[in-house]
Design brief:
CATH class of the largest domain: Alpha Beta
Bound molecules: NADP nicotinamide-adenine-dinucleotide phosphate
Low-confidence stretches: 1-14
Oligomer: single chain
Structural class: alpha/beta
CATH superfamily of the largest domain: FAD/NAD(P)-binding domain
Number of helices: 16
Mean pLDDT: 95
CATH architecture of the largest domain: 3-Layer(bba) Sandwich
Length: 550
Amino acid sequence: MGTTATGETTKNRRRTNGAPEVDAVVVGAGVAGLYMLHRLRGLGLSVQVFERGDGVGGTWYWNRYPGARCDTDSVEYSYEFSDELQQEWRWSERFATQPEILRYLEHVADRFDLRRDIQFGTTVTEAAFDEAAGRWRIATDDGARISATYFIMATGCLSAVNRPAFDGLDRFEGEWYHTGAWPHDKVSFAGKRVGIIGTGSSAIQSIPVIAAEAEHLTVFQRQPNYTIPARNAPLDPAEYAAIREQYDELRSRAKENPAACWWELNPATAEELSEDERRQELESRWELGGLAMYGVFNDVLANPAANDVATEFVRSKIRALVDDPHVAELLSPHSFIGCKRICLDTDYYATFNRPNVTLVDISDAPIEEITRTGLRTGGKEYEFDTIVFAIGFDAMTGPLLRVDIRGRDGQTLKAKWADGPRTYLGIAIEGFPNLFTISGPSSPSVLTNMIPSIEQHVEWIADCIAHARASGRPCIEATRQAEDEWIAHHDEVAAGTVFPGCNSWYVGANIPGKPRRVMPYTGGFPEYVKKCDAVAANGYEGFTLSVARA
Ligand code: NAP
């Protein structure tokens, strides 16, 4: 670990709490971990947070690649738990850059005095539930041990990078980078021949920026993605002031949206609209930019025919934006729109009109190997000074399974999830008492605005812990029946959507050997919250409470 942009170094790797026993251990100091710490402190618990990075920020700490910015409007991609915080912070652009979001999270850490309970530069490696004591025994990579009643994984959904597993990478004599673990110092592409592998959100944001600097950029595309113009711009001061005055109203309205976002969901299905009305709706969302395309028709994610209307519209835009018809066709997806995360871009398609950019289709010819001077695919060699791997993440389950977590009877989480993840509400796991996952598999998480989703989880978990402690039976565990019923419901809802029909990271298709199943909950944020609230109101239905079940 080197020096970070914030000047923190591995000297921070010290036990901030110093205690061998605490009430709660939280893993991760990103959006989720910071708020969880704040909330648990509010309950009077002693808390130790461990963070792998040398600073706060989680995803916004690691993803420093060129062009990195959020795809949710900054005014809604922010905490709402503190009105003072949301009133005092000033976003500068419609879609905040990575450095601006990181500054925001650093401000939150300072404002709520959170750093004193966070040990940076430390990876939690093992956690085992001691049934006799009713405590989690947790080990970190500095050899330390700590025990806690509650163990909370705030490790995010996209924090385990999909490591490049290409033959020959160790022989490559140039520089290579992964978008999800970008260096803190500026990487220069000036005068360089650059190859980028991948065309997901990270690549789509970085390609125009790298192309503007590099001598030549070659893009290796396995499957094209749908991307919509972001229409980023500085925030208008008058509009921003009006938003700050109506924060409460706007945020509560967003809770009625399936993605917990401020964009409007069209109440009409595609079929209920005339051809002209459909076109107008599509055009206006394309012009508006952002992720509003998700709400273009009420049934766009459920009905393949409605989805086709939207996909043909985007393909027509690609044909209009890309000069070379062959390149336009290669860039045109034919999958369902939305079953892979829709991307947002600034000048992505126009970048392929530049003379210094080449698109290479590798859909039928995987990368054979990385060579000393570049890479080989389709029997052809390409020479590069720099290779960028924009190949994504082992999403949702990766961050949880890379910690050796053992529950009752020594059962590992890995074994329990051998056929795919099973949780109750994406928050709790049968056989793993007092373990909570924030944005775990089977929660809406990645299909929603992450910050309100995280706040909902954190508050629900804090209330649940308060309830268990107040009951005098602090050990709380999901029952097998509750988990089975939640997973059955989760699968049934997913089967009625377009999500199973795409090779996306939502279904684990990007990681060889990963069990294929839709991981996020597709029933929408409002339905999900209703269910969570009902579980709590019914005395944490589906959970058992005990003193410690030895
Ligand atoms: P990604 O969406 O998983 O894209 C990875 C890309 O790498 C895909 O094009 C994939 O091709 C390709 N790839 C993977 N393995 C490959 C291999 N062995 N050979 C060739 N190509 C390979 O990852 P990402 O772009 O990092 O984005 C992940 C998620 O992070 C996004 O969906 C989004 O939720 C989030 N994100 C958000 C923002 C934002 O807020 N603006 C920005 C970046 C990321 P296939 O499609 O064929 O698998």
